[in-house]
Amino acid sequence: MKRSAGILLPIFSLPSEYGIGSLGAEARAFANFLQDAGQSWWQILPVGPAGAGDSPYASESTFAGNPLFIDLELLARDGLLTEEELASARVPAGDKIDYAALKKSREPLLRTAFSRVSGEAAEAARAFAEDRPWVREYALYRAAKRHFGNLPWFQWPDGGLRRHQPEAVERWRVELAEETAFEVCVQHWFFTQWAALKAYVNGLGLGLIGDLPIYVSLDSADVWSERGEFLLDKEGRPAKVAGVPPDYFSEDGQLWGNPLYDWEAMKRGGFGWWIRRVEGASRLFDVIRIDHFRGLESYWAVPAGSETARVGAWEKGPGMDLLGVLSSWFQGIAFIAEDLGILTDGVHRLREESGLPGMKVLEFAFSDPSNAYLPHNYRPHCVCYTGTHDNDTAAGWYASAPPRERAFAEKYLGVSGGENVRRALLRAGLGSAAELFVAQMQDYLALGSESRINIPGVAEGNWRWRLLPGQARPELAEEIRSQTSLYGRCPWIPEPESEPETIPAAEPEARPAAEPVANPTAESGETDSLAI
After folding, report:
1. 383: β partners
2. Which of 1, 193, 444, 520 is the most buried (most CB within 10 A)?
3. Helix runs in 377-490, H state only
4. Helix residue spans in 293-402 (DSSP H)
5. Is 233 noted as a catalytic residue in this protein?
6. SS percent in the chain: helix, strand, coil, step 5
């Protein structure tokens, strides 16, 4: 990566009249904001169907897209929904997502739209499934799950289907043909809208950074259809599950409960499952952040049934056996190693051998001058964050930090007081030697802990924060650009090969090709104001 900057904002956090962010006009408007702000990257979280606790890291599929992200107005533009139906889906503005209400209201609308699909549109959906084998498996998994009262696959009454036996799979595929066709169509809508959004974002000279969770959920189409890749017994139950031991996020550790991989079997198969997985992610993102990178060196295995993650043991991961395959197979995709947590010499060696940039989190930095997360200790080949989606906002962090930590931060940054520290923290990241600096959108808005995205180890109430209409204002973009340019992180955006796709009526006017970015502080001499 060249020296650059980006902002972290999940898709679900975009403003919307329909209760959750989507892939339509507001997503394009935020991309425009990023370009105005001199950013090069938009970092988002996983975009699969959210699972337990509404978490994007507990999805029913590592390949599928979240139906809640489908833009309803784009479906209406295609004649699949009416204005009256759109009006029924609009909800009062608010900065928190009500997932329970969305799950009740959104599927009937999508089914209404599905009932109007015919002709070329229906054929396009079928062709989409034929080109992606995972779609057929996911569609049947979803249809069977609904048929069996939403039970997890390992509790389905049909033993043949539960064990994914070919005869049973084909029998149920015929039995549930209408339901599987609906699920295929939903995924076709998602990926069609995503491709259009990505083309628009890339046309502005911006790239997308997305997360690849290291594990998948036990109750997922992935485990159901490819059980041989995981450490499971004959009934599909794991003897050990994934988690992390006690750390700075949780005194009891984090008991994720995901099944563990059968790394030996995967290696014998040439890591084909991972190749397919990363190939799918490469259609969504320009840069892939490998979540829980340290688990590739060694992972925390917890006996199934444990109440916390305190009881467990480290077991050897695949290391360069896997990373070597991925780096050679996907030479056009950049990776970031999420090398946070309990790091050992082995983890550091693996990151260095793989050549991937690691992460530096400023909110973890202020203990003493030797802390590796302090900017003066950085090597350029890294990515600096104020905080990730698992951290508090910058303002919230300062408000709740221990007195000794706050005192050291003030001394190091040369300022005092929460607002001054927030601004100085952003400047410290922008001015660091890191190739890429990423801040949460909340940090530029000076929002507190009430706007935090996730609290690790807390099962409910996360993943709900949303940007309000009007918060991504032009004045804020100008101020962010001023500081981004001052520290040499503004891009020189090449002229796109073609005009970005626009959305009639709801979409802002298409932008002309961007001019080379000049330093906006050169003439005015201004280096600081409301944003940073």
Report:
1. 359, 436
2. 444
3. 394-400, 403-413, 418-431, 441-444, 474-486
4. 294-297, 320-329, 345-354, 394-400
5. no
6. 45, 10, 45
Question: From CA 216, how far away is CA 276, in angstroms rounded?
Answer: 14
Catalytic hit among 26, 229, 286, 291: 291
Are the beta carbons of 41 and 6 closer than 8 angstroms? Answer: yes
Pairing type for strands 358-361 and 298-303 reads unpaired
Residue type, 23: L
* pLDDT at res. 492: 59
Both structure tokens of 494: 């090449």
List of domains in the chain: 4-524 (3.20.20.80)
Say how many Å lie between the first and final Cα of the chain, rounded: 24
Tokens of 85: 């139906």
Strands 207-212 and 41-43: parallel
Bridge partners of 209, per DSSP, are 43, 287
Annotated active-site residue 338? The verdict is: yes
- Tell which residue, 387, 346, 438, 394, has the closest CA to residue 249: 387
CA 317 – CA 298 distance, rounded (Å): 4
Angle 133-147/166-175 helices, nearest 10 degrees?
Answer: 70
Q: Are strands 382-385 and 358-361 parallel, antiparallel or unpaired?
A: parallel
Q: What are phi and psi of 356, to 5 degrees?
A: -85, 145
DSSP 8-class letter at 21: -
Alpha-carbon distance 144 to 357, whole Å? 42
Q: Is 130 known to be catalytic?
A: no
- For residue range 236-294, list pLDDT tens digits in order: 999 999 999 987 767 888 899 999 999 999 999 999 999 999 999 999 999 999 999 99
Q: What is the mean pLDDT of each run of 10 residues along the chain (532 residues)?
A: 94 96 98 98 96 93 98 98 96 88 95 96 95 95 98 96 97 98 98 98 97 96 96 91 84 90 97 97 96 95 92 96 95 92 91 96 97 96 97 97 97 96 98 98 98 90 95 98 97 53 47 40 34 50
Size of the chain, expressed as the number of residues it contains: 532
Q: How far, CA to CA in Å, does 473 sit from each of 29, 317, 427, 469, 478? A: 11, 46, 20, 9, 9
**Nearest Cα to 518, choosing from 492, 496, 487, 494?**
492
Instruction: Decide: helix, strand or coil at residue 351.
Output: helix
CB 138 within 8 A of CB 144: no
Which residue among 390, 435, 479, 507 is the active-site one?
A: 390
Among residues 219, 338, 479, 507, the one annotated as catalytic is 338
The pLDDT score that the predictor gives to residue 510 is 60
